[in-house]
Write a structure and sequence with these properties.
The complex is a heterodimer. In chain A, 33% of the residues lie in helices and 17% in strands. By secondary structure, chain A is α/β, with parallel strands linked by helices. In chain A, helix 2 crosses helix 5 and helix 13 packs across helix 15. Chain B contains nine helices and seven strands; from the N terminus they run βααβαβαβαβββαααα. In chain B, strand 6 and strand 7 form a beta hairpin. Chain B is globular and about 65 Å long. The termini of chain B are far apart.
Chain lengths: 469, 207
């Protein structure tokens, strides 16, 4: 059993009681909600005649269903309009702060909360969305919950949960040039498998993690869930604190000093005990691309799609399914596979640094004529910052469509969808069958820089050939 | 697909019913219920859309479309079932189709807690036992009687020791799987906790 890790400390701090069945009642410091997983929870509150216990500890935004082309109201899609209206009504009725479209702070919930300074070290954070693990980048303990648990947090500010085990993923050495946080996390998921994290929180640590920016750390923690870990985190450090300084909701003045003292005390002890420790050599990682139907099915850009015999017995079943669905052959190179759609965005890679990296690749280049390419900033703040830096123009000049903020084609709940069996190069997080809106659509996950390179060449490419020019 | 739906309520001690087998590892919640069906403000109509895209691909041959399975209530799955998105719509859709319990090699964390929270017990069995059930053609109509008190599943010539988290088992037996009221019982402790947390004090600008 783990001892004295950050996870243990934050868990113990937030433990309200031991429940009769043996699970713990955990206080949720920050509750984030959006339009998809909250309406039924508010409905259940009404059915049970309950109210929201601490409305000021819940914050809302709208992201999954928003159109990215025309955001004028009412939305063209009646169901989407009904969902945003329901959220507006619920927030108004229960006095919950809502960052709506046009507020300047709307966007993907996991992009918005950190940039507002809502996400802070040492907090427990829950949201009805599996990528809530993102917030662990700040040394908070953050995890996705379902709608019934959203109801419980609204009604009690607590949930019933079994304590997780803790696995440290120690990342040695440094990523090489042209290799990004996305490549690192795809590599980790490939090495450990998509279900290794079940029952675990992942602590990402080591030299390769320490040098990452806060946004890169968010990319890493974001995809913990793709490795099965509901929660992933990184011990907070000076980078964390300097990112937070002057954010809208960060502590101010003397409270900043108090907060800083407390935050600095928040980390896994030198002699803390983990349930498991895994070492990864970051210097050996190449730009990484998925070839199959789970985020664990990835290879380096210069590698071939694995043969069935090269895989462990446990991986064979899904591999066979993947060859068939993707229409790829075992042994085939991933490089040069033609792509038809290129998508930059999502809670994994829709932040300003992601847009900067992609824009740098795209500058003075043109998107292949066979490719439909679009970029969806993660939030209104990201979009504004990008515009100030002229990134929107670089994207547009290259042939990318510049869109309004939202989740967009990561999960295709709006009109941004693949058609038929199109192949997309996508900076998002899931390559599941049908994930991007077409039941036969195919997704290749990669870093935003790699998406930009694929867009230019019209096929899967090694971004290092662009940045080393 | 049942023509009427009554959600589970109170103590869950015994579940009897026909099994339906679904073969495959890492079956994610996008496959259980594709995202386009999440455009709803209640869960009522999800049952008919469960596995929509997989079913369309198999043109009537998907287990959830076979006539012989239409009254099944116990789903038999392989490993990491329910991975991916946290959408509770996935177990809600399964439940509305008629599923009352799931037996598998392993489950994704969030999917598992969603199932518990809505009253669907999830049990695990070793890979070998699951495959025996799934591959046994004579067992086309396997009826199981699950006893949560003993964590046992019985059929005519079969007895299986099911694994389930002890906390979940106790919650089903006591009826406390619908956690809200149990959590609310500690309302003083919750208030105390709020006042103890360091960050509540220094977040004067917190919304």
């Amino acid at each position: 059993m783990s001892k004295d890790t950050l996870f243990d400390k934050v868990w113990d701090l937030h433990k309200v009681s031991s429940l009769p069945g043996g699970s713990d009642q955990i206080f949720i410091g920050l509750h984030l909600i959006h339009e998809v997983t909250s309406p039924q929870a508010f409905g259940a509150l009404k059915d049970k005649n309950l109210t929201v216990k601490f409305p000021s500890r819940t914050v809302a935004t709208v992201d999954h269903i928003v159109p990215t082309d025309n955001q004028s109201r009412p939305f063209k899609d009646n169901l989407a309009e009904q969902m945003i209206e329901t959220l507006e009504k619920n927030c108004l009725q229960h006095k919950i702060k809502f960052f709506n479209i046009g507020s300047g702070s709307q966007g993907i919930v996991h992009v918005v909360a950190p940039e507002l300074g809502l996400t802070q070290p040492g907090m427990t954070i829950a949201c009805g969305d599996s990528h809530t693990s993102t917030h662990g980048a700040f040394g908070s303990i953050a995890f996705g919950i379902g709608t019934s648990q959203v109801r419980d947090v609204l009604a009690t500010q607590t949930i019933a949960m079994n304590k997780l085990k803790v696995r440290q993923i120690w990342c040695e050495n440094q990523l090489s040039n042209g290799v990004y946080a996305k490549d690192l996390v795809l590599h980790i998921i490939n090495k450990l498998g998509v279900k290794a994290g079940v029952g675990f929180a992942y602590e990402f640590a080591g030299p390769a993690i320490n040098v990452l920016s806060m946004e890169e750390r968010m990319t890493i923690c974001n995809m913990s869930i793709e490795g099965g870990a509901r929660c992933g985190y990184i011990n907070p450090d000076e980078k964390t604190f300097s990112y937070m300084r002057d954010k809208l909701c960060a502590p101010k003045n003397e409270y900043w000093e108090k907060a800083l003292r407390w935050w600095k005390s928040l980390k896994s002890d030198e002699d803390s005990i983990y349930d498991d420790v895994i070492k990864i050599d970051a210097s050996k990682i190449e730009p990484t691309v998925t070839w199959g139907i789970t985020p664990g099915q990835s290879i380096g850009i210069n590698q071939q799609i694995p043969l069935l015999d090269e895989l462990s017995p446990n991986d064979k079943l899904v591999a066979e399914e993947a060859y068939e669905y993707m229409s790829f052959k075992p042994g085939q190179s991933i490089k040069d596979i033609p792509v038809e759609v290129c998508f930059i965005g999502s809670c994994t890679n829709g932040r300003i640094s992601d847009l900067r990296v992609a824009a740098k690749v795209l500058k003075d280049k043109k998107v292949s004529k066979n490719v439909k390419a679009f970029v969806v900033p993660g939030s209104e703040k990201v979009a504004n910052e990008a515009k100030q830096e002229g990134l929107d123009q670089i994207f547009k000049d290259s042939g990318f469509q510049w869109r309004e903020p939202g989740c967009s084609m990561c999960l295709a709940m709006n009109s941004d969808k693949l058609v038929g069996n199109q192949i997309s190069a996508s900076s998002s997080n899931r390559n599941f069958k049908g994930r991007q809106g077409s039941p036969s659509g195919r997704t290749l996950l990669m870093s935003p820089a790699m998406v930009a390179a694929a867009a230019i060449n019209g096929k899967v490419s090694d971004v290092r050939e662009f940045i080393n020019e | 697909m049942k023509s009427f739906f009554t959600p589970p309520i109170g103590k869950i001690i015994q579940i009897k019913g026909q099994c339906i087998s679904l073969i495959g590892n890492d079956i994610d919640t996008d496959r259980i219920i594709p995202a386009r069906f999440l455009k709803c403000v209640n869960f009522d109509s999800l049952g008919e859309s469960v596995f929509e895209d997989d079913r369309a691909t198999l043109k009537g041959q998907h287990p959830f479309d076979l006539e012989e399975n239409k009254n099944a209530t116990i789903l038999i799955v392989n490993s990491n079932f329910g991975c991916g998105s946290s959408r509770e719509h996935a177990p809600q859709a399964l439940m509305r189709w008629g599923i009352r319990a799931i037996i598998g090699e392993s489950f994704a964390d969030i999917f598992y807690s969603n199932c518990i929270a809505i009253g669907i017990p999830c049990f695990t069995l070793p890979k070998k036992s699951i495959q025996e059930i799934q591959n046994n053609k004579d067992n086309k109509f396997l009826f199981l009687e699950i006893d949560l008190k003993k964590s046992l599943a019985k059929a005519k010539d079969l007895s299986l020791n099911l694994e389930i988290k002890e906390s979940s088992r106790k919650m089903f037996l006591s009826g406390e799987w619908d956690a809200t009221s149990t959590l609310l019982d500690n309302k003083n402790l919750i208030e105390n906790k709020l006042n103890q947390l360091p960050y509540i004090k220094f977040n004067t600008n917190f919304l």
